[in-house]
Amino acid sequence: MQGSPATDPDADLRRALSRHRALATGMLVGMGGLLVGTYSMPPGYWTDMLQASAKAGVVGGLADWFAVTALFRRPLGLPIPHTAIVPNQKERLGRALGRFVAGHVITEAEVRRVIGRLDLARILQGFLADPAASKPAAVAMAGSLPRILASLEDGRAKRLMVRLLPRIVSGPAGARLVARVLRAFVASGRHQEVFSLAVGRIKTMLTEREDALRTAIASRIRAEGGALIGWLAGATMANRILHAINAELEKVQPEDSDLRAAFGEWLRQEIDRLETDPERAEAIGRVLRDALSHPSVAIWLGDVWARLRTAMTVDAAREDGRTVALLSGLFANAGTLLAEDAAARARLNAAVEGVLIRLLPSAQTQLSDFIAGVVGNWDARTVADKIELRVGRDLQYVRINGTLVGFLAGGALFALLTAVFGGVAH
């Protein structure tokens, strides 16, 4: 199938084929002219030899022209059997070509050689280390997150969280997680804020319920000491007790109070026990497991998942969001690791090679079928044209060689037969 010179990608091949075809045809025509010319030459040994040589050259050139032409089309348009071989056998040709490429080009040895020469880990490291190159990949990956989240069934995701979280936090793993969180909490001083909040709530409760507490204390004194003691000292003792409690709470309020320091020290000791005492770790794990298995907690976890999904979906759609920043950071860290660790690069290359080798048999089959399908779906003229453009020049040399070899063989055979038999009929 031919295209215009301006758009035909095979224009150079077509011109080269035309030149060589003209050369081969010209030589055949020249040989025919030589043959005709010998009939006007004076009779003699050399004229007969030249005539025999020219005849053999014409026959050889015609035979090779027929053979070359029969590969791609019918010679002179005649319906001669076993001609136009390529167009008529394109399906079989496609299958054979597919098997050849899959079995002799895309081989295990060739895959190993190419991977070893490419050093894919080094290429990946250069990509990951370049923010300008890796940022679009991070944006594209983050952009796919909403579709992934949308494909998840909320009910299934919630049930998975409800099943997994109790297992994650139960036992030593849960205790270590709690200890790590508490240690960070103490290191930041946030535990004192909790302590202050508790003290403040106690003081507020005492103020709001002072009359009720005073009455309750007086009633308790009368019950223990009798009506007379209660009448004489009940109210006074109740006031003193409430005053003493408020005074102690006031002592706790300053940042440097002994009770605050003791609370911090006790909390640190408990954290150490969580990390070192298996029994305490197991107890904490049971408490967490039972708490997270409660139906109300399951409902809360479902709400957490819904909020988390919404937040991730919104953030992933922003190029300046945390998701893109996180992925970019992961890419950069991976690039640094590959740049500094030759062993990591070697492991990555080995892993890629192993994956490709395992996939190779399936890939070979699919490649073979793909090539066979492409060639089989080509138009017959297109198949013949594509193949002839790429091998036709060499086939024209077959025609040229056939003409020359026929000419030389005809002369040699004439000389031999004349020497043996003394004359040759022609």
TrEMBL record:
Does the record bear rRNA-binding in its keywords? no
What domain of life?
Answer: Bacteria
Q: Record's InterPro entries?
A: DUF445
Indicate the transmembrane segments per the record.
22-40, 403-425
The alphabetical list of record keywords is: Membrane, Transmembrane, Transmembrane helix
Any idea what this protein is called? Membrane protein
Organism of derivation: Roseomonas fluvialis
The top of its lineage is:
Bacteria, Pseudomonadati, Pseudomonadota, Alphaproteobacteria, Acetobacterales
